[in-house]
């Protein structure tokens, strides 16, 4: 199921990142302590009243060309209008109405998407008189909140959930591998999609997906069916998308949601950037299998160790997904595009692996013998029993005596043991701890 995207927009200092942290705060998971994931979160899943959505802080997206503030804010808003399902327009009740707020409102009044006007920094609800001015923005009654104190944010979330688009059913046909081609602008996503579709038999193209504007392309290769998620967004770039290219991360988020395998495209000439880490990190966190495609390999001067050195760089920079196979390709010449699809097949299969309970418990027993679980002064962690709870991604439930004694490093040890024994290439692995006496 595709998650709706909710973008927070507004001038600098109105409290966007404070609100972001407030709304996602409770959900930041303990499992995600993996090194290498960029910690400055710009997007994060949040949940309210049973609805899950992805919240994006557009203020955190840094712009290449600095520009003046009204212009930067304007870009954020254009991006939000283009890519998000709901816009939260944040204003500062203490500072009062500013001309930048008015500019933003003028843009937002033109979209048919739901916009919620939110007045932040209202700590004293006796004095909501200060909000009267904001009615002038023509976006309805402002919702007063204090992001810092968490006041009235429950009401805000109720309102937000009521305007989210309806839940759409899981799409796609069985036996079809859904692939999202993701990456920064200019790494070669469109070229890669065209290279794939040029070689393989396209079955149907241009079937609108359930998500608004998304166009998916189906193709067949060696008797197997694939779907490229949201190829319209990749192949036909709108004027706005070009203008705000840097932010195409939102488009990637949406595509990742709907895929099984993420093809993360990197640019061989540029190495691994922070933006690459964010995009790949999202695929990882969403539990999707990944293949790393190092594109434009034709432009690299190579000696016998070049690809090895590049792989080492990737392993270091994307340390949270050392499980992902790396393929050096050229979308331009088509070199190794075939190999890339073989890797897609492999990881799609690996993310569905099931380990029998007896094999799993034997492995855990051996692992524990070699390297005992953590202990504190007078208690030692015991893993009583393990079972595989699910696939996509493979998830293991560990029944333990004291869950709080578990360390991230011990889980990583178990993960490594599982990978050494069973593979799980290209897919993240998750653990769930359950307490048992
Ligand atoms: P952003 O630039 O829009 O992301 O704004 P920040 O979240 O960084 O907040 C800007 C400043 O406003 C910080 O000093 C925050 O502590 C402060 N702030 C944020 N929310 C509130 C609030 O609800 N009440 C008050 N009084 N201050 C707040
Ligand atoms: P996107 O923004 O990620 O979709 O990137 P594009 O597919 O539009 O490619 C950006 C630029 O890189 C274009 O000028 C392409 O021709 C070029 N390009 C893409 N793939 C390759 C490649 O494998 N080798 C070379 N030399 N150029 C490439």
UniProtKB/TrEMBL annotation:
Keywords for this protein: GTP-binding, Nucleotide-binding, Repeat, Ribosome biogenesis
Superkingdom to which the source organism belongs: Bacteria
Role according to the record: GTPase that plays an essential role in the late steps of ribosome biogenesis.
Gene, per the UniProt record: der
Assembly notes: Associates with the 50S ribosomal subunit.
Residues annotated for GTP 2 binding in this entry: 183-190, 230-234, 295-298
InterPro entries membership: AAA+_ATPase, G_ENGA, GTP-bd, GTPase_Der, KH_dom-like, KH_dom-like_a/b, P-loop_NTPase, Small_GTP-bd
Source organism of this protein record: Desulfofundulus luciae
HAMAP family the UniProt entry points to: GTPase_Der
All copies of domain EngA-type G, residue ranges: 4-168, 177-352
Residues the record lists as binding GTP 1: 10-17, 57-61, 120-123
Name by which UniProt lists this protein: GTPase Der
NCBIfam families according to UniProt: GTPase_EngA, small_GTP
Family: Belongs to the TRAFAC class TrmE-Era-EngA-EngB-Septin-like GTPase superfamily. EngA (Der) GTPase family.
């Amino acid at each position: 199921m595709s998650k709706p995207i909710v973008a927070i927009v507004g001038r600098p200092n109105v409290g966007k990142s404070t609100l972001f942290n407030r709304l996602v705060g409770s959900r930041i998971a303990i499992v995600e302590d993996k090194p290498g994931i960029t910690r400055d979160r710009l997007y994060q899943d949040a949940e309210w009243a049973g609805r899950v959505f992805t919240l994006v802080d557009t203020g955190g997206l840094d712009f290449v060309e600095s520009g003046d503030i009204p212009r930067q804010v304007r870009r954020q808003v254009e991006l939000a209008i283009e890519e998000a399902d709901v816009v939260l327009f944040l204003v500062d009740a203490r500072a009062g109405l500013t001309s930048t707020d008015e500019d933003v409102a003028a843009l937002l009044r033109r979209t048919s998407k739901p916009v919620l006007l939110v007045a932040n920094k209202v700590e004293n609800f006796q004095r909501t008189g200060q909000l009267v001015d904001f009615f002038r923005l023509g976006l309805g009654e402002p919702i007063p909140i204090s992001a810092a104190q968490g006041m009235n944010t429950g009401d805000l979330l109720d309102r937000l959930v009521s305007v989210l688009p309806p839940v759409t059913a899981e799409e796609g046909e069985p036996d079809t591998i859904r692939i999202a081609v993701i990456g920064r602008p200019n790494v070669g996503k469109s070229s890669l999609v065209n290279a794939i579709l040029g070689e393989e038999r396209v079955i149907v193209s241009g079937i609108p997906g359930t998500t608004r504007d998304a166009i998916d392309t189906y193709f067949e290769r060696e008797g197997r069916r694939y779907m490229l998620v949201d190829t319209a967004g990749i192949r036909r770039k709108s004027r706005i998308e070009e203008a705000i290219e840097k932010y195409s991360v939102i488009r990637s988020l949406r595509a990742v949601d709907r895929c099984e395998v993420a093809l993360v495209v990197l640019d061989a000439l540029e190495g691994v950037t922070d933006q690459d880490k964010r995009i790949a990190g999202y695929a990882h966190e969403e539990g999707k299998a990944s293949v790393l495609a190092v594109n434009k390999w034709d432009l690299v001067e190579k000696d016998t160790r070049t690809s090895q050195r590049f792989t080492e760089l990737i392993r270091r920079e994307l340390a949270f997904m050392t499980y992902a196979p790396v393929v050096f390709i050229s979308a331009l010449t088509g070199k190794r595009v075939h190999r890339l699809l073989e890797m897609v097949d492999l990881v799609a299969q690996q993310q569905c692996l099931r380990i029998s309970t007896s094999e799993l418990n034997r492995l855990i027993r051996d692992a524990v013998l070699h390297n005992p679980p953590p202990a504190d002064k007078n208690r030692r962690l015991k893993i009583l029993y393990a079972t595989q709870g699910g696939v996509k991604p493979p998830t293991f439930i560990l029944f333990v005596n004291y869950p709080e004694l578990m360390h991230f490093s011990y889980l990583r040890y178990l993960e490594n043991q599982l990978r050494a024994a069973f593979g799980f290439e290209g897919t993240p692995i998750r653990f769930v701890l359950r307490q048992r006496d």
